Amino acid sequence: MTSTLDSLFLLAQGGGGNPLAGQFVPIILMVAMFYLLLIRPQQKARKELQARIDSLEKGDKVITTGGMHGTVHQISEKTVTLKAGGDNVFLTFDKPSVASVIKLKSEKAASSKDTKTDKK
C-alpha cells in the first residue's frame, strides 16, 4: 500500500515523466521560429524571382548579381543577352545571374499614369 501511495506522489510531482522531453521543447520551438522567420520568406522571394526570370521578354530592364544594368536584347534557354551602355555593346549572362527584373509593361503603365496626371 505504501509503494502505491509513493508512486502516486511521484507522479503528482512530475517525477515519473521523461526528463529529456522538457529539454527538446525549446529546441523544437527555435527550429520552428527559424523556419518561419528566415527560411520560408527566403524561399518565397526566390520563387518570385525565378518566375520573373522565366517570364523575361525582349526590352525588359534587368540588374545582374554583379551590378550590371542592361536591357534584354535576346533570350535563350540558359542565357540572356543584355544591351548595356553605348552603341552595340552586348553582354551575355547566365539566367541565374539576373538579380532583379523591371518589366517593360509595368514601366509603360507607370509612364502613362504620369502623363494622365500631368494633363489634369
From TrEMBL:
<keyword id="KW-1133">Transmembrane helix</keyword>
<keyword id="KW-0812">Transmembrane</keyword>
<dbReference type="GO" id="GO:0015031">
    <property type="term" value="P:protein transport"/>
</dbReference>
<keyword id="KW-0472">Membrane</keyword>
<keyword id="KW-0811">Translocation</keyword>
<dbReference type="GO" id="GO:0005886">
    <property type="term" value="C:plasma membrane"/>
</dbReference>
<feature type="transmembrane region" description="Helical">
    <location>
        <begin position="20"/>
        <end position="39"/>
    </location>
</feature>
<keyword id="KW-0653">Protein transport</keyword>
<dbReference type="InterPro" id="IPR003849">
    <property type="entry name" value="Preprotein_translocase_YajC"/>
</dbReference>
<keyword id="KW-0813">Transport</keyword>
<dbReference type="Pfam" id="PF02699">
    <property type="entry name" value="YajC"/>
</dbReference>
<keyword id="KW-1003">Cell membrane</keyword>
<comment type="similarity">
    <text>Belongs to the YajC family.</text>
</comment>
<protein>
    <recommendedName>
        <fullName>Sec translocon accessory complex subunit YajC</fullName>
    </recommendedName>
</protein>
